[in-house]
């Protein structure tokens, strides 16, 4: 494999140890889902829940994924059970309802971004038309993405907040990540953003510069002294704190413990490199582990998902070489040669059968269920830690799913980092800024709220409360906590929030790599096209 800075032809290897797998991608953007909001508690008859599939930013964001990371949902085309929800008092359950429709990749993100710019320039809008509720209560709309488990935990925390703040009523809604991302962009562009909104790492710059978000640094109601300064800084743009982290997450190699052990391949080590990761994927694929799940009859599993489509994975690989996805002034931190090497290496892994084929990569929708590991067509995945909990139910329950550290560069430099799994921001146009800030403070700093929420949005960002909570964690939350402990003091600080054009470039990155994986372009041709598009997208 060529050394750092070299670049192979189509199908060659990159230098400096190769690179990571899929970074908890937020979905290929090829679907939209029916969405809805919940009626006010006062006299409401129920609510329509947005379809609950979602990534990983930290999700993945999540997140990520993309973002990041934070939670998981249902694969595209599922009804996702998300229908009408009855009031808490005497509710009878849900009636299933969902629909899915195709849309061109990336077009919705770009259109929404343009609308946000127009919104800021022409009207100065920031969203959030708010009215007083019955009895003169301040009404807050609080929206997030996530899976049903996160929703249940959040609803319990919101009930406690309302009990502690009887003058405030909180109306909640949640959706899968792709649905949520598109809906929030539309609401913000129309001046109707929720009072409190969950944000991915890659959305902050976009919404802050468009005038959608309130300066939380000026609000004493949000206490941030217990949050690591590096994590907190990722929610700031040009020195202004527009968002506060809600959880701490990181990436992991997620694997089916039974299948990996059955293969006879050495288990992941704490100090393995990207080159060793690639070799392990090839060995796993050669072990003839029977595929399971839908469509698995008669086939065998590959090692893992083709990581070439993931901008998150590319960033991890770059950081392992001492490089970055973006410079501090918002420009590309890598070259065409870097990206060519990355895509050529991924292309080579796929051609050798070490990772998933092209059609599986393009079927990703942001849920763990629809990844090759979730369909039991692969032995492993690379994802953000919080959504990885969704694999347990698929792979056989407790103990069936494990987390391993991300590989490093050849010299041991880690590309992995702790990042906020997601953030909370407040609409600049909210009628109740103090109450909105108090809700965020409650979620981050109240011991009872933190206990209710657990690791559903990643581990708590309040250092003291995280240490207090960890011994009480159960189930996969304990697995996540152990993963974090294994990485303490080993990782470098997280990068600043990406520039506002990055949200659209995630989709461009996936689309351009599709051209490689389907053999329509060479890695060099696709890399050159992406660099041109990225520079245009990032132009001030």
From TrEMBL:
Disordered, as annotated region: 1-109, 487-518
Chain intervals with Basic residues compositional bias: 94-108
Positions with biased composition (Low complexity): 76-92
Compositional bias (Gly residues): 1-27, 55-74
Domain of life, per lineage: Bacteria
InterPro entries: Bact_solute-bd_prot1 (IPR050490), SBP (IPR006059)
PANTHER family according to UniProt: ABC TRANSPORTER SUBSTRATE-BINDING PROTEIN, ARABINOSE-BINDING PROTEIN-RELATED
Record protein name field: Carbohydrate ABC transporter substrate-binding protein
